[in-house]
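Many introductory courses stop at the sequence. We go one step further.
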Amino acid sequence: MALRMKTRFRHGGKKTPAERASVVAFNFWKVAQELYRRMQKEDFKFGSGDQIVAIMTETLAFLVQVADRLVYGKLPEDERQEFVTALGLKLAEAIQSNLTDLHGPADYQTPFIRTLNERFGDYAEFDFSGGKPGYAFLRYFADKVSTGIAASDNKWVSEYVMEIEAPEALRHARRVVHEVMGIPLG
């Protein structure tokens, strides 16, 4: 993924975790969009807008989990909670705004936040050590993306996501969290 990440603030001074979360959310949205575009270019078939929303939702949930794991133990707990909460809310706002533009007014935030909260429980079961997700962590993400487009005939979605898209998304997420949050990679 050749993405330009915005990781610098225009004005100096100390930034709150919520302000930093806003920048991370902007970049995560770009990563999720690029993942979808690349899958589309690889001729994976998306039967409906709901499938695209499912892929975006699962990708954003994966990235939030990655961000949470990357900052865990490197930020004070109250700052970590503020960051992760603000990140989820900023992404929910992006979902709401974009889906309202596409499909008209409705509540798109609540289902997104519900999915995000469910994924916190799900991903908590999987290893993430040394700044990298374990196999089960990646497999779960790939399976969720595959399930999101299950109505179409795509045999290799999970393998493709695990081998190609997840490592790219992870690379961008690590860089953004490192640069915006000022935490060491490791």
